[in-house]
Every structure is written in C-alpha cells, then in structure tokens.
Amino acid sequence: MQKYIMSGFFFTACIVAIVLMFTLPGKEQVAEEAKPSMPEVVLDAASAETVVKSSCISCHGDQLQGGVGPNLEKIGSQMTPEEIYSLVSKGKGIMPAFKGKLKDEEIANVAQWLATKK
Fold first, then answer.
1. Residue from 33, 38, 36 nearest 108 by CA
2. 8 Å CB contact between 81 and 111
3. pLDDT at 35 over 70
4. Chain-centre distance of CA 36, in angstroms?
5. Binding-site residues, please?
6. Where are the domains of the chain?
7. Which of 106, 118, 117 is nearest to 50 (CA)?
8. 31 has a pLDDT exceeding 70
C-alpha cells in the first residue's frame, strides 16, 4: 500500500513540475517586467516642471538641489532618460514608485526633462 502512495506522490510532483515549467515566466519575460519600457513622448518642459513641483520637490528640493532625496541638478550626465524612467516608475530605496500615481507619459516626460539637466 505504501508503494502506491509513494507512486501517487511522485506522479503528482511530476505533474506539478511540468505545469510549472510551462506557466512560470522565463528569464527574458522577468527581465522585461523588471525594466519598464518608456513610452515615446515629445518633451514638454512646462508640464514636466509642473509634475516635478507637485511630486518631487518635497524630497529633492525646489531647485532639485537635494534634501531627503539626492541632488538632481546634473542627473542627466549620470543617467539616461530610460534609466530615470525606470527608477521613477519602480522606485528604489526610500524613493517611492510613481507607477500608478502618475501616468506613464508623465513619468516619461519628467525623465526626458531630467535627462537634459547636465
């Protein structure tokens, strides 16, 4: 009897393993989800400044000089627009994620605007 129970457990484990192999995301899919793709937008500096004033100055300062968050005055010389977009979307450390709080196009516009700060 014990032999049949163990065979049943083994068969069930094999079925679960096969199902997981076909349903779990692959490395490429996980990497794509980890790095959000930036939508294409035309830079609108006035709109970006409005978003920054309403969402960013409390941590990064009114002149982007830093405070709780790092100085962003020359962030464009350190990061690409895509890297900035990813960081703002997902957040990092004490920086909150803004995906869901801001539209993707707003985040992309801010990322492009910040990338001009060199």
1. 38
2. yes
3. no
4. 5
5. 56, 59-60, 95
6. 35-115
7. 106
8. no
* Residues flagged as binding site for heme c: 56, 59-60, 95
Convert 77-105 to b/e letters by CB count within 10 Å (16 or more is b).
eebebbebbbbbbeeeeebeebbeebebe
Q: What is the pLDDT of residue 30?
A: 60
Which residues on neighbouring strands pair with residue 52, listed in sequence order? none
Right CATH for 35-115 from 1.10.760.10, 3.40.50.720, 1.10.260.40, 3.60.20.10: 1.10.760.10
CA–CA distance, 79 with 87 (Å, rounded to integer)? 10
33, pLDDT greater than 70: no
pTM: 0.70
Average pLDDT over residues 54-72: 94
pLDDT the model gives residue 83: 94
> How far apart, in Å, do the first and last CA atoms of the chain sit?
74
DSSP result, 30-66: HHHHHSPPPPP----HHHHHHHHHHHTHHHH-TTS--
